[in-house]
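Dear Dr. H.,

I hope your travels went smoothly. While you were away I took the liberty of generating a structure for the chain from your last submission, since the lab meeting agenda had it listed for discussion. I wanted you to have the full record in hand beforehand rather than looking at slides cold. The sequence, exactly as received, is reproduced here:
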Amino acid sequence: MTVWRDVIGQDTAVATLHRAANDPDAMTHAWLLTGPPGSGRSVAARAFAAALQCPNGGCGECRECRTAMDGSHADVDVIATEGLSIKVALVRDLVQLAALRPSVGRWRIIIVEDADRLTAFSDAPANALLKALEEPTPRTVWILCAPSVEDVIITLRSRSRHVRLRTPPAEAVAELLQRRDGVDAPMALYAARAAQSHVGLARRLARDEGARIRRREVISLAGKIRGVGHAIDAASDLAKIAEDESGAASTERDASERQRLMEVLGADPTARTQPPHIRSQLAALEKEQKARATRYSRDVLDRSLLDLLSIYRDALVLHTGAPIDLVNQDAMAAVQQLAQATSPEELLHAIDAIGTARERIGLNVNPLLALEAMALSLRLPS
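The corresponding predicted structure, in token form, is as follows:
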């Protein structure tokens, strides 16, 4: 059993990273791991870090492997923002950290899981990182993760070695769920297909009945949008699904964080007003929580749009007769109904409309407006 056991369906990428961890001539100071959401970029990055620290090249059993994989290794730092962007101040701190020699391991390794968010609103964070990649420190390794090379500015990707991951087969994801999470075989295969091989989403679908119900509600919208009123209602439903899930995920956590901060600051939670220094700390926490909730809501919304897109994709597969597995085999009646009601051209138009909505929301357009414009394009022919 090695550190690569959970990096599924990525034989070429694993071969490249394994060779670099064991052959100094194949090693470099900066790596860029790209792949679609759910392909396992972060898992591959942690496995690579473990293999670099391991005296046996990634055995998966030693202390170095275990601590690097679980995030507790002193010389492996994992950066993953819960906001909409990575702040320039954090990047400058990372650059200073990268200049230090490793304390206990063979390498100092910095993993940036959301490298695409270095340039979400400004190029300043990416430019702050550029100098560290141009003038690398010996024994320091940067591992950047992003959906595609286009999501990282050219000055960073030109100084990094690119390793591309692909979408793993649904069967491989199902096998992982059975082996790692104890999910029974039928549920594992359903979740893998419904999640379109996104490992994290598949795990959630397999374990959370609420997530499965919400997904069924989303794909059912395709057969309900027949007029302008239906379109507006569908857009509102999608926005509410994202808002409710985001609220459910953040309410308890936000309250716990606030209580913990008050305890650290020695504040009286029953006081009507707090001293200025405590108010400023609470305001900063609330700002961070709001940014995190916004990102989570948009991530949920994007997943919902991918679920919705999948039923139009399946209907198009039925039209063409292509020998391709359907994503929504459990909702075959809805897929057939949509295929009978629409032409291939109309299905392609719908798929384009959903893609445009995703792009607009990613560019900070008001989500509800983007959803309404999309839903109007999804109206079924009369």
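Two observations you may find useful: The longest helix spans residues 276-320. The beta strands are 30-34, 76-79, 108-112, 140-146, 161-164.

With kind regards,
E. W.
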